Amino acid sequence: MSRLISLMRPLAILAVALLLAVFMVKSRPELEARSVSIPLPVVAVQTVAKAEQPVSVVAYGNVTAWRQLELTAQVGGRVRWQSPLFEPGVMVEKGEPLLRIDPTDYELALAEARQALSSAKLSLADAKSLRQAARVEEAEAAVAAAEARIVRAERDLKNTEITAPYHAVIDEQTVELGQFISVGTRLGRILGANRAEVRLPVPPQDVRFIQDIDVAQVTLYSESAGDKLSWEGRLARIEARIDPQTRSFPVVAEIDDPLDENLHAAPLRFGLFVRAEITGATVASAILLPQSAVHGESDVFVFSNGALQRRKVTVARVSAEGVLVTGGLADGEQVVVTRLDLMFEGMAVALSDV
């Protein structure tokens, strides 16, 4: 009997524990059911209002001179005089003497040529007075040869002085005072200061907006030491070729007298890197959207009745300013300019208060 009681005791304890557990579960209060609302994504919109949109093409380039001339010696000799202005970076006027080569040998050659001409003329006069036809013909040839030698001697003597052929800036100077030079020796290089050029690479899709070079305006900008400087120029030409490396059209802008501080707020120096803004054509009945509004190549989302509506549009131009749209939207429609991680047709959204 005692053995039976020992066996039943664990079963009784287990049954009591089970009853207590059931009682506790039954006696706990019921949880209150609550509805959880998920907030809608908030987006900003731009209301469509079509209008004329001016196109401004932005490009970058370096300022160069419209002329670059290599100075070479036409005669040989020792450099006897060098102008203090013949130094890199110095501006010179047209006709300004830069170098003088020792003219002694060329003065002597000119004197000898003139003497030979006098002798030839005297021989011609004698032949004519004696009526010697053969000698007259020979003397006339000698006179012509002597006159040609005088022309050459005068030209060589003139070439002993090297002058600036036009208003220019000295770019390089490669000879020194006292140096002996020969014909063809490189003396230096000058840059024409009457006009500056900026060759601007413009993508093909932007060139069509600036075809009328007589109307297009060009403004150059440069930031130097915190100051933003600008210069007004004009469009000179659109070159009839495509750069093989950049696949762009070289568009050339010109600025008259770039170093004249009376015409410009600051000198436009050669070699300066500038940003150019070219005023192109005006696109009628268009809207400018931020790039964040366009998905893929030509899709936008329109806010309609609390949801997104996908719309394909006509894109005329994409630039840093934004995306120029000419078709696919109507005035008054609201284009979503906020880019969400997930956007699809019919997605419910809320408008931003801002």
Please give the structural blueprint.
Elements: H1 2-27, E1 42-43, E2 45-47, E3 51-65, E4 68-72, E5 77-82, E6 91-92, E7 97-101, H2 104-129, H3 133-158, E8 161-163, E9 168-173, E10 180-181, E11 186-192, E12 195-202, H4 204-207, E13 217-224, E14 227-238, E15 249-256, E16 273-289, E17 299-304, E18 307-312, E19 314-319, E20 322-327, E21 334-336, E22 350-351
Helix pairs in contact: 2-3
Keywords:
OB fold (Dihydrolipoamide Acetyltransferase, E2P), conserved putative lor/sdh protein from methanococcus maripaludis s2 fold, 4-stranded antiparallel β-sheet, 6-stranded antiparallel barrel, 4 domains, Elongation Factor Tu (Ef-tu), domain 3, alpha+beta, 22 strands, 354 residues
General description of the model:
This protein is of the alpha+beta class and 354 residues long. The chain has four domains: 43-53 and 285-351, conserved putative lor/sdh protein from methanococcus maripaludis s2 fold (Beta Barrel); 57-66 and 192-281, Efflux pump adaptor protein, beta barrel domain (Elongation Factor Tu (Ef-tu), domain 3, Beta Barrel); 68-97 and 166-191, OB fold (Dihydrolipoamide Acetyltransferase, E2P) (Beta Barrel); 103-159. 23% of the residues lie in helices and 39% in strands. The protein contains four helices and 22 strands. It has helices at residues 2-27, 104-129, 133-158, 204-207; strands spanning 42-43, 45-47, 51-65, 68-72, 77-82, 91-92, 97-101, 161-163, 168-173, 180-181, 186-192, 195-202, 217-224, 227-238, 249-256, 273-289, 299-304, 307-312, 314-319, 322-327, 334-336, 350-351. A six-stranded antiparallel β-barrel has the order 3-12-15-14-13-16. Strands 2-21-17-18 form a four-stranded antiparallel beta sheet, with no helix packed on it. Helix 2 (104-129) packs antiparallel against helix 3. It is elongated. The protein starts with a helix and ends with a strand. The mean pLDDT is 88.
